[in-house]
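During the reporting period the student researcher (J.K.) took over the structure-prediction task from the postdoctoral fellow and processed the backlog of single-chain submissions. One of the processed entries is reproduced below for the supervisory committee.
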Amino acid sequence: MPLALLALAIGAFGIGTTEFVIMGLLPEVAGDFGVSIPTAGLLVTGYALGVVLGAPLMTVLGTKVSRKRMLMLLMGLFVLGNLLSAVAPSFSVMLIGRVVASLAHGAFFGIGSVVAADLVAPDKKAGAIAMMFTGLTVANVVGVPLGTFVGQAAGWRITFTIVAALGLIGLAGIAKLVPDMPKPQGVRLRHELAAFKNAQVLLAMAMTVLGFGGVFAAITYIAPMMTHVAGFADGSVTWLLVLFGLGMVGGNLIGGKYADRALMPMLYVSLGALAVVLAVFTVTAHNKVLAAISIALIGALGFATVPPLQKRVLDQAHGAPTLASAVNIGAFNLGNALSAWLGGIVIAAGFGYTSPNWVGAALAAAALLLAFLSAALERRGGTSTDTTVSGRPAPVEAEAVAHH
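J.K. obtained the following structure tokens:
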């Protein structure tokens, strides 16, 4: 794999750390600014909404800039947002800093996916995308727990300063290692927008919303579920989330490897198994050992869908994939927000802390049905833009590669 993928992974590590570390530091931030925990929670909500809105906005603004330069500008914006959070004199300023940092998130992963795929041979594209996303998954294993520990011990402002420094390292790596690949000739914004007329692109994004939404339906409420149902101590939640992160790392790499060999079968297996594990989690959540295993499996199966879904969008939006790729990153966050809301509804309705698992199972099952529908429509059309099982690129993807 090219060294340029390491630079993209470092940027992804910083972004993943800043997205999730705030959850462990909410009490400290709320205490310093004199606001309630629910008010401090706006730092999470604001970031998620910033990703959803920023993904298409920043990608559109960058249509006239080379992808390498746009990645550098996005990392600069990320650094600025985290520095603003680190020195914020008031809660409102910190919220602005969080939103500024989030604007870089979707476009970075969207454009980064295109760049990563262009760096390698056609039959290694999903693996290259997975390599970049490894930075995000490792952030949940290393960056988030370490950032939480530093923030609780030395102050949350130090954590955001360190994250900004990570952004600078990523920026330097992109400047040094990522080749300057110009955009395909003749591709304009209207071509990028035209991808959204493709039913397969929209189906892939719907699978992203529902499939990854299934994961976050359960994980959003993992703390009360594990402490009140499984009987874990409050301090054990951090290590359970590390298990979830380890599952994410493994699932991401496996998903990238097998999506290059057989993309749709990989989606069938991962989404189907995810639906089953989430449903079974309503029972295994009552046992400490089985609950821990289930959490790791949810992380693995959930992130095994990420490289194939991202590659699916790139394949179907061939020739002008950048905007569609970025919007698909926003779709992950939209799924997170939707599933967290639905999970809260069933808990508030009195169905218990394990009830979000049924919501997650239903969402994952719905994503699986869409995967079958997508494949059926593709067979009816008599075309395929995915890499075949043998590893040979389909003609239309080869044509897209030639544009680069």
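The committee noted the following: Residues 383-404 have pLDDT under 50 and may be disordered.
J.K. will present the remaining backlog at the next meeting.
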